[in-house]
Input
Amino acid sequence: MIDYGNDEVKPNRGGWFLNFLTIVLLLGIIAAIALTVLIFQNPQAVYNPFPPPTLPAAIVLPSATPTVIALPPTWTPVVTETPAPTATVATPTRVPDVATPIPNDSDLLFTATPTEKASSIYPFATQSAPAAIDATVLFPERVCNWMGVGGQVVDMEARPLTGVGVQLGGSIGGKTVSLTSLTGTALQYGTAGYEFTISDVPTATQGSFWIRLVDQANLPLSGRIYFDTYAECEKNLTIINLKQVR
Output
């Protein structure tokens, strides 16, 4: 038989300590929550253990103020008179006579001009206008006892063309002149040089003579090139150089 009469309920003496710890823990949680709310509202508070960096001060730019330029109440133009220029009469000065230099052998050689175009339907044309010079430049013995025409013929690359027919036509002293030659027969003018003797005395004519190039069938390869002759001994040789233009 069990005896319950002697059992006594002993008080729990350690329970108050646990209750105290619980209360302290609750107060700590409440304090932490309150501190978090305060830090969230004011991050720069001194009690924030991790404050954000301080932002630099904002730069305030000055506002532009327009300035009104005041014009004078009246404006009077000032007219400055400019003296009229004085006419100056130029004194003529006599220019001394200068002798025209006689071209040398290199002046007679042909120089190709790539940009020059044909001025006719023919494949050959003159390099430049006919020029009258002293024959003694090439032939010292032809002082004043000879008159003629000569030159040379080259292709589009400035290479000499030999064997091309050259015709001379015209009249002098009532006599008709009609001669034919080939390039390459007068080497004094170049590898493809030609020459015609017109007279043994320098005589002045104007547009009476012409030359032209022809092929083996005497068909023209160039138009007629007219030239003048002169009575001066220093102009007894007319130079006419021709070139292929197409």
Summary: The beta strands are 124-126, 131-133, 147-154, 165-172, 175-182, 193-199, 205-214, 225-229, 237-239, 242-244.
